[in-house]
Amino acid sequence: MTNYNKLVRDKIPQIIEANGKKAVYKVLSDAEHAVMLNKKLHEEFLEYTNANEEDKVEELADLVEVVYAILESKGVSFEEFEKVRLAKREERGGFKEKLFLINVDEK
């Protein structure tokens, strides 16, 4: 028996059982789900940072899937999220210029 104790994608129990194994799982409350989504975000971030170059896009897709799930759990639509993202980009810029701030002289 292998213990996972983590949030998984919706079809994982069926995939496990299709492989002749028994998946033991529970449906989380909204509060538990919110906590586990935050843990999953951290897990997926670590998987992305540790992935080799050819797996990074797939890991980013997992990371974005968790972000979308968090937005949904907070009642924020993708359109609302994009509006906030684009407004922030307009106000503060993006990351295209590859700027690296070394310090600020407080004179």
Which SSEs are present, and which pair or pack?
Layout: H1 12-18, H2 30-50, H3 56-73, H4 78-92
Helix pairs in contact: 2-3
How would you describe the overall organization of this protein?
Helix content is 57%, strand content 0%. It contains four helices and no strands. It is elongated and about 65 Å long. It is an all-alpha fold. It has one domain (12-92).
- Our measurement of the CA-to-CA distance between the termini, rounded to an integer number of angstroms, reads 63 Å
The share of residues in helices is 55-70%
Give the low-confidence spans.
none
Query: How would you classify the helix and strand content by structural class?
Result: mainly alpha
Question: Using DSSP, what is the number of strands?
Answer: 0
Largest sheet composition: none
Average pLDDT: 98
Task: Please sum up the structure shown.
The protein has 107 residues and is an all-alpha fold. It has 4 helices and no strands. The longest helix has 21 residues, at 30-50.
Structure characteristics:
107 residues, mainly alpha, 4 helices
